[in-house]
Amino acid sequence: MKQYYIGVDLGGTNIKVSVFTSDFRLLGENRTPTQVEHGSDHVLSRIYENITALLDELHLDTSDIRCMGIGVPGILDIPNGISRFSPNFPKWKEVPIAAWMENHLHIPVFIDNDARVNLYGEWRFGAGKNRKNVLMITLGTGLGGAAVVDGRVIYGATGSAGEIGHINMYREGRECRCGSSGCLGRYVSALGILRTFREKVESGAESVVCDWVQGDLSKVTAAMLSDAYDAGDATAIETMKETGELLGYGLCAVFSLYNPEIIIVGGGMSNTGDRLLQYTRAILEKHALRIPYAACTIVTAVLGDSAGMLGAAVYAKEKMDELEPEPDLSEVLSFR
Ligand SMILES: [Zn+2]
């Protein structure tokens, strides 16, 4: 019986696959490196192999699966299930993910933006439960965003609504792979904060982090900056402050547009927590519209890095229910 759901989180670093029951209890999951450098066919085969391996492990096969959702980074053609372009996937162009998977697995497949599947997870089961106006930010390698406004996940004309990573903060700033420059995500993201730190060191600032990596700045990680921040390192503190403040200025615009009641900060770099967000809040307090800001809380995500898989499965189920509503058994019973 088709009673289970698959959720896939396709990231630049890892492919994560989970199988859920119809009430979204986790049956099993696996994770494997994406190996994005080998191109799209290789990555699609890896996703497929991981799904079949997980189903074998759970003694299930595709006839037990109602549908599957995949969270994909970058610009998508959502209705046609195509990944058009992804900044972190260098060899990707017009990759027909949903069709490829449907041909191999013979189950319905739905794709959506990675930030948006995180939003579905946190909104239905995490920090945004029962809220009608939610802004999700994913602070990872890059910066993603997605929003629920008045109880609906918003998409916009080409599915790009909520892409806060590409709000222009500097007229001619750091170049962005989207084709523009000065985008928020080029500063507020793991790559962005590391570059800011590196620029400071290269222009003469000192930091304990340089000792930790024996002067090799390519080895610095966002986690190291948090550790250095905790140790009172002035350059790490300045980097965190600049990055947090810039996020605050970017969010001022988002506040005016979406009027969220909760902002959920997820993604790998959300571990920086209040080290970063205290500066974001300080800017919002000064510059965001007062009444909406007073009505909003900023929190870190609670589902951790499984939000994407769970959200992808939830999203797929909701899409599937729109196409073929599950029979309402209570009505059938009341007929008798
Ligand atoms: Zn951009």
Strand neighbour order, sheet with most strands? 3-2-1-4-7
The averaged pLDDT comes out at 93
What small molecules are bound in this structure? zinc ion
Structural class per helix/strand content?
alpha/beta
Beta-strand percentage range: 15-25%
In CATH, the homologous superfamily of the largest domain goes by the name ATPase, nucleotide binding domain
Please give the CATH architecture of the largest domain: 2-Layer Sandwich
N-C termini distance: 24 Å
In the predicted model, the low-confidence regions spanning at least 5 consecutive residues are none
Helix content: 25-40%
| Radius of gyration from the alpha-carbon trace, in angstroms | 21 Å
Any idea what the shape is? globular
Number of helices: 11
